[in-house]
Structure to design on (97 residues):
């Protein structure tokens, strides 16, 4: 679903992309092993960043701001650095103006 959303975003099908990213955030996992949920949890969180970008492109700055903040709340202090974190912070600064 994450890849589908990214593809839709890339192709400019913003409503379809938004729908995919909203769906992926609902993924809930129960896992015993530390690494066993990585491949599913990662897109569920990263999808919030992409959803924020889609919302911004759709002209919904307040919703995009909330989604960027949610993404950063989930990923902003993780050990693994992502370019998306820096981009989300820059987007929040831009949306504050």
């Amino acid at each position: 679903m994450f890849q589908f959303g990214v593809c839709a975003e890339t192709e400019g099908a913003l409503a379809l992309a938004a729908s995919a990213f909203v769906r992926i955030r609902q993924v809930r996992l129960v896992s015993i092993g530390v690494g066993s949920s990585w491949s599913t949890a990662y897109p569920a969180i990263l999808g919030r960043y992409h959803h924020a970008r889609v919302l911004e492109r759709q002209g919904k700055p307040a919703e995009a701001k909330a989604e960027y903040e949610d993404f950063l709340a989930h990923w902003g202090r993780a050990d693994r650095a992502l370019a998306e974190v820096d981009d989300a912070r820059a987007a929040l600064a831009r949306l504050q103006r």
